[in-house]
Every structure is written in structure tokens, then in C-alpha cells.
């Protein structure tokens, strides 16, 4: 059993209203020194087998077709240590 | 300028219907060997200053009060390399 992490974030050129709302709320809540926040998604994908190159290729395909909208989002795939 | 990552995931004992829906959709889409998926949130927090211990303490307070619902969610804070 291995666990692979897929992080999905909006592309840098895409506006992120959720992140902006958080960044704007922070000063009101007493936090300073945070000019920007971006919000994305994190998926923990459990694998029956080992996280070898073939399995990671499958997870990348999964991210591409199901987990991320690659028109507006970037994703990264990594094995959890 | 430093960037701190806050990962927010549902606690292990809390049901994750989004993750379950993904895990159940995978076989239909031709993916096998993935018994479970859990979905959470990822925040990229930009800091004006360095990510020193004081700044990380502030980000942890931020996660506790704004980014995570600690009744049902766990969070981790780490500096992006």
C-alpha cells in the first residue's frame, strides 16, 4: 500500500476569488503581512500496489482526466514519504 | 517573500463523500487498484517577511481560526522549499 498526493491549483493567470476573500479577511481578523492566498485542492490517492513508475503514470492520467480541469488548473503528483 | 503551505484534510474518522465519489468513479473510467481517495484543501499563503518561527506561529493560528474547521479537519503547516 502506498499513498500518492495530487495537488491541484488554479493556474497563476486565473483569478482565485476564494483565495482573495481569505487574504482580504485576514487583516480584519488581526493578521498582517500576508499579501496573497491561493486556495486549491489536495487529493490523497491510496494504491493497492507500490508507487512505481507505472502507478504514477496512471495517477497522472487520473489527475488529467478526473481530478483537475487542465484548462484552468495545474496539478502535481508526488509520493507521500 | 516566503510561501507557506497549509494542507487541510478531514479527520480520518470523518466520512468523505467527495473522496468516495471519486474512488467509485475510477473503475468506470478504466482505473483500477485505487481502494480509496480523500479530498482536502491546499492553501498557498504568501508572506511579506521570512518564514521564521514567529511567522509560522501566525500561520498556524490562521489555520486554526480561519482555514480549517478543527472539529472535523486536521491541518499541517510547512514552508515551501
From TrEMBL, chains A, B:
Record carries keyword ATP-binding: yes
One GO MF term, please?
A: phosphoribosylformylglycinamidine synthase activity
Q: Which UniProt keywords apply?
A: ATP-binding, Cytoplasm, Ligase, Nucleotide-binding, Purine biosynthesis
Location(s), subcellular: Cytoplasm
User: Which SUPFAM superfamilies has this protein been placed in?
Assistant: PurS-like
Per the UniProt record, one Pfam family is: PurS
| InterPro entries hit by this protein | PurS (IPR003850), PurS-like_sf (IPR036604)
Q: What class of enzyme is it?
A: ligase
E.C. numbers: 6.3.5.3
Query: Pathway, according to UniProt?
Result: Purine metabolism; IMP biosynthesis via de novo pathway; 5-amino-1-(5-phospho-D-ribosyl)imidazole from N(2)-formyl-N(1)-(5-phospho-D-ribosyl)glycinamide: step 1/2
GO terms of biological process kind: 'de novo' IMP biosynthetic process
Partners and quaternary state? Answer: Part of the FGAM synthase complex composed of 1 PurL, 1 PurQ and 2 PurS subunits.
Protein purpose: Part of the phosphoribosylformylglycinamidine synthase complex involved in the purines biosynthetic pathway. Catalyzes the ATP-dependent conversion of formylglycinamide ribonucleotide (FGAR) and glutamine to yield formylglycinamidine ribonucleotide (FGAM) and glutamate. The FGAM synthase complex is composed of three subunits. PurQ produces an ammonia molecule by converting glutamine to glutamate. PurL transfers the ammonia molecule to FGAR to form FGAM in an ATP-dependent manner.
Protein known as: Phosphoribosylformylglycinamidine synthase subunit PurS
Give the organism's phylogenetic lineage: Bacteria, Bacillati, Actinomycetota, Actinomycetes, Streptosporangiales
Name of the encoding gene: purS
Amino acid at each position: 500500500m502506498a499513498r500518492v498526493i495530487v495537488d491541484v491549483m488554479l493556474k497563476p493567470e486565473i483569478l482565485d476569488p476564494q483565495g482573495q476573500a481569505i487574504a482580504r479577511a485576514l487583516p480584519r481578523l488581526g493578521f498582517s503581512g500576508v499579501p496573497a492566498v491561493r486556495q486549491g485542492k489536495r487529493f490523497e490517492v491510496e494504491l493497492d500496489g507500490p508507487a512505481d513508475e507505472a502507478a504514477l503514470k496512471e495517477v497522472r492520467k487520473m489527475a488529467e482526466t478526473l481530478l483537475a480541469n487542465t484548462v484552468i488548473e495545474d496539478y502535481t503528483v508526488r509520493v507521500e514519504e
